[in-house]
Specification:
197 residues, 2 domains, 3-stranded antiparallel sheet, two-stranded antiparallel ribbon, 7 helices
Length: 197
């Protein structure tokens, strides 16, 4: 699995959250956009390896057309100052994704309690298959909120990756962590549910 930077529809780029709000949370959690926009075009994902840049020699920014969130930036080689080299960046990004996936699986193990009725497992499985927002709304959606004591925060992730929040790719690593968490969380909930039906 790899990070999804954005989705394309209606001739613009949109962040995963705005896309999920528009087409259903299954789009964000699964990374599959089985949807059609108002122009009749298929909604497509933009992955971290896709080229969205114009390569016009200037610094470029990929932003959500709805909320304005900065999704990615591109800095020409001539402007790169204190940026990690590509191999290091990719290794750290994979490490962040794997860390998020590990935490997602652990968090998902608490989704069902020991007394869950069979009907709940079936409801979850059906909702996952259909992309039902009611099911996805029950999932942990902010893994780095730090809402509860002991919950991880972005700073914790950066520390485990041995990078600083001033690192040029720090936000990318957080996005990778959250992608890994979300995918692994949904997959683990599904795996557990299938064991009980």
């Amino acid at each position: 699995m790899s990070a999804i930077l954005a989705y394309t529809y209606e001739a613009a780029y949109h962040c995963p959250q705005c896309t999920a709000d528009r087409f259903g949370l299954a789009v964000q959690a699964r990374g599959v956009a089985a949807a059609v926009d108002s122009e009749g075009n298929e909604v497509n994902a933009v992955f971290s390896w896709d080229e969205w840049q114009q390569f016009d020699g200037t610094r470029e920014t990929l932003a959500c057309d709805d909320c304005g969130m900065i999704l990615d930036t591109y800095t020409p080689d001539a402007e790169r100052i204190d940026m990690p080299d590509r191999d290091t960046q990719e290794a750290k990004a994979k490490q962040a994704y794997d860390l998020g996936a590990e935490h997602g699986r652990n968090a998902a193990s608490w989704y069902f309690d020991g007394n869950a009725p069979e009907g709940l497992y079936k409801w979850v499985l059906q909702g996952l298959a259909e992309g039902d927002p009611e099911v996805y709304d029950t999932f942990l959606s902010s893994p780095l909120s730090g809402e509860w004591a002991g919950d991880p925060t972005p700073r914790d992730v950066w520390e485990q990756l041995d990078v600083s929040e001033d690192d040029g790719a720090a936000d990318d690593y957080i996005r990778m962590y959250e992608d890994g968490f979300g995918v692994a969380y949904a997959d683990e909930v599904e795996r557990i549910a299938r064991l009980h039906v």
